[in-house]
Design a protein that fits this description.
Layout lengths: L7 E7 L3 H13 L3 E5 L4 H10 L4 E5 L7 H11 L5 E5 L4 H10 L3 E4 L3 H41 L4 E5 L2 E5 L1 H7 L21 H12 L8 E6 L5 E13 L2 E10 L4 H12 L9 H18 L3 E8 L2 H8 L4 H15 L5 E4 L5 E5 L4 H16 L3 E2 L4 E2 L3 E8 L6 H17 L5 E4 L4 H21 L3 E7 L1 E2 L6 E10 L5 E2 L5 H6 L3 H21 L4 E6 L9 H13 L6 E6 H6 L1 H11 L5 E7 L5 H4 L7 E4 L11 H16 L3 E4 L5 H10 L3 E2 L16
Parallel strand pairs: 1-2, 1-3, 3-4, 4-5, 16-17, 20-22, 22-23, 23-24, 24-25, 25-26, 26-27
Antiparallel strand pairs: 6-7, 6-10, 8-9, 9-10, 11-13, 11-16, 12-13, 14-15, 18-20, 19-27, 20-21
Length: 691
Amino acid sequence: MQFGKDAVLRLMVVDDSVEAAESIISTLRNQGVAVRPSRPESEEEFGALISGQPLDIVVASRHARSVPVEQVFQRVSASAKDLPVLLLLDSVNDEAFIEAQDLGARNVVLRDRLEHTVGVIRTEWTDLEARRALRRLEAQVRETERRCDSLIESSRDPIAYVHEGMHIRANSAYLEIFGYESFEDVEGMSLLDMIAPGHVDAFKQLLKQLSKGDAPPPRYDVEARALDGHSFPAVMEFSPATYEGEHCLQLVLRRQELDPELAREVEELRQRDQVTGLFNRPTFLRALEDTVSDAAQNATHHGLLLIEPDHYAKLLNEIGLDAADEFAASFAQRLRSAVGPDDIVARFGEHQFAVLSRNSDHVTTTHRAEAVRGAFADHMLETSSRSLNLTVSIGGVQIGEKIASVTAVLAKASQGLQQMIGVGGNRVELFDPGAMDRAEEERIEAWVQRIREALDSDRFVMHYQPLVSLQGDPDEMYEAYLRLRGDQGETVAPMSFLQIAEEHGLLWEIDRWIVAQAINVIGQRLRAGRRTTMLVKITQGSLQDDSLIRHIEEQLARHGADGTLLVLQLPESKVFTHLRQTQEFLSQLSRSGVRLGLEQFGAGLNSFQLLSHIDAAFLKVDRSFTESLPTSPDQQKKLKEITQKAGALGKHTVVDFVRDASTMSVLFSAGVSYAQGFFLAPAGPEMDYEF
């Protein structure tokens, strides 16, 4: 399981000590795990949480008095939920471990070994997600099988499933073409009985080859025989399949009324893209399925490449839409000349092409990809009306036992292709499960270089989203969002590069850039007679020393800006784990009048207790309180409690990601100070909202 920003661990801690529970949660967050915690203080509250909200893991102290551990296991068992319970112990010995197993604990964790506790929690979470994924897949498989069975039965094509040469399933069209009334008439019948006598020997040889595991031919011409004894020419198409969990062959039979030579020509046309002459997508996918199956069964190695021309939209504007087909044909011709004679080449999308190199190792596939890239980068592409200077981006996959799945192969190839487009194009990204670390290092290095170039050449840009007061405050307020400007003017969202920037110590430089830009905007608007409050996000790395403080003071003086109009935002969880540093930072910040905002507020166990140590002016409510706000009375109640407590402390509350009018009406009634979201206005490069 990948613990990304979108994966949230819903953790319940049953412990009399709030500090001990918070230490577990903080350690998890420091290791990059997003946590949505809860801590019941009575048996009634525990029962309500178990029955009323989804949970992932329960950590229960053996000696908790607020909710005895026996009650924990009894309630969890009675809920019939797949909910792992970890027993929190001060120390462990044989008797304690056996007792934990008897109670029903999935594992034990030690109070004073937080790293061990977090490791066990992550392991159990991974196992839980795997079990959930398996249940989802099983349900999807059952539904897919039901739909497929319905589609096959209603299909006008004669379709049958054959196992070891015997019929195990056939649809109505198949029965009709042979003259049978029901499947019971052919169930268990050999496929040889459907073949004319003159073709039996050759067909018997085919069945022997298939029984040995050889790949079925995509097309087999044969003389079929109906129940009444008359024969007719037919084409059989085989493909591997499973039916009711059993491996078999799917047979699609088509009556052949045309001349065989003409039929082959028609079949050839059916497999080709009419503009480029390359194979079309369905034909390529069938070949890819066979190749992936071969890799899984025989441990062979093959290469897949997805290729796109760089900056296609801009290119299309230059050559004109009417020349798109001519461009595709010229592109296909150049591509065909750059690959091997035995490679399967296809037009996979409007401007996406695919190459399948069978029996190709990593080195060969890499050379093939570079040859394709060089064929376009080093030569002009000629069309009838112009010469084009063109480059391509390539995403590839080395197909083998470790990635023997069509879905995974295409996903990895597409991911590599998009990454290469995102870092400027004219690059190759080849995913090889055996060389994954090397490929990841190269991708990260390209991003690090791009971020450094963006900082040096001022290629970051700001987008702005308004915060609208719900309490009649007429002042202008915007939140600034960071974007990266690409080589062709496209904008790249920060989720693509912030994690890499953090790992390579670049966040503090990005913080300085965005803060300077915000102060510049504040100063410009002040000189234009407009007081505009700006909210900007910074990272905990800027709390380490006073360099950002000095930078803010310098920029405020340089641009003649009012510090009270700048609000720096930090996530609540980061403030909690860097409390002393935040206090010192805020103390120095107050000299300039700059204020602090807390994001993801309410996600911790003692959010309002944090406000007794940190003077935050703005509280941005965690999204968990507003995801289903219009339809959840419980969430409406919690939001109202937060706004009332915040109002009593003189704090402004903010709810973002507002998407509809019904949510807005709830925010009004709950007493929220400010709302922002796509329903009000999307983030954009201009600050033109009419407050």
